[in-house]
Amino acid sequence: MGGRLFLGAEGVKPHALSGGYARTPMKPVELSIKGGSHPHIKVDPSISSPVQPQAVRYEHLAGRRAHEMAGERGGEELKLLGHWGSGFALRVRLALYLKGVHYSYVEEDLRNKSDLLLRCNPVHKAVPVLIHNGRPICESQVILQYIEETPFFSGSGSTCTLLPADPHERAVARFWAAYVDDEIGVPWDKAFRSGTEEERAAWMGKVAAAVPGLERGLTECTDGGRKGCFFGGAGGVGYVDVVLGGVAPYVHAMEKVSGERLFDGEKTPMLAAWLERFGELEVARAVLPDVDRVVGYVRMILAKNAAKGAE
Asked: What is the pTM of this model?
């Protein structure tokens, strides 16, 4: 995503929902699954803050499935630096779960970034960063394409493919993924960082104006629903679904916080159906944070920015 979206700092600086305003500073905690169904948690001895319970639970579920599908494959090291509230990092976690690969997860405090994050992403200093055999890959959409193109991620026994084989269809998927970031993500992020209600309403108006375009894209990708309800069409969940899926909890949260329904059943029925069906998937239940937790996070961010605007 090129440093521009709502919910997760990828790029120039921490955005409104990037985790840059976490409630309590927390040094990175590394989680990994080692055999069986119980998570083995490796904690830096210098860490005094407790591991967030939900972060442990989500990695436990994803890691358990990854172990069951892929087992232990020696010689490969995979680590993800992320933040629970980052829609960018959630994209990568969704993709890794779908691929069924085992990985270690490091929860970053973006107000107190780890040396590892700063070394691995010296340009943007932001999550997510995927480290594969010691080599970092930055920016969520770049990471997703790396996951799709690297043979290691295809050897887990999973049949999931994020991008179709046909070059034109791949180009179409990349177009709509870019649309999500540029036409919806950019103004949504600016809305969250707005200091006044008038400014926020203006940016949310731009988001609302772009949503029908995404509805048109989903209609084309699914042939009006005849090929299913996901952007992957007959192939099921695909690249655009993962890109958009990272912010699904925030779509629900915004309705609870402000009454704004981005994917309205009457105005955008395809997207409304997509949101419901995506939330029912095993991968969504395992990886995405609880909506009520996101609601509290959104309210905190909006209040903080409103206070700044009043200064």
From this structure: 0.81
State mean pLDDT over 186-190.
Answer: 96
Please, which residues have CB within 8 angstroms of residue 297's CB and are 6 or more apart in sequence? Answer: 17, 85, 253
Query: How would you list the strands of the sheet with 129-132, edge to edge?
Result: 39-42, 29-33, 104-107, 78-82, 129-132, 135-138
In this structure, what token pair is assigned to residue 141? 């959409």
Tens-place pLDDT, residues 119-175: 999 999 999 999 999 999 999 999 999 999 999 998 767 789 999 999 999 999 999
**What is the amino acid identity at position 214?**
L
Separation of alpha carbons 258 and 276, rounded Å:
20
* Listed ranges 44-53, 54-63, 79-88; the one with the highest mean pLDDT: 79-88
Three-state SS sequence of the chain: CCCCCCCCCCCCCCCCCCCCCCCCCCCCEEEEECCCCCEEEECCCCCCCCCCHHHHHHHHHHHHHHHHHHCCCCCCCEEEEECCCCHHHHHHHHHHHHHCCCCEEEECCCCCCCHHHHHHCCCCCCCCEEEECCEEEECHHHHHHHHHHCHHHHCCCCCCCCCCCCHHHHHHHHHHHHHHHHHHHHHHHHHHCCCCHHHHHHHHHHHHHHHHHHHHHHHHHCCCCCCCCCCCHHHCCCHHHHHHHCCHHHHHHHHHHHCCCCCCCCCCHHHHHHHHHHHHCHHHHHHCCCHHHHHHHHHHHHHHHHHHHHC
- pLDDT computed for residue 74 by the predictor: 55
Q: What's the pLDDT tens digit per position in 253-292?
A: 999 999 999 999 999 999 999 999 999 999 999 999 999 9
Structure-block tokens of residue 52:
């967030």
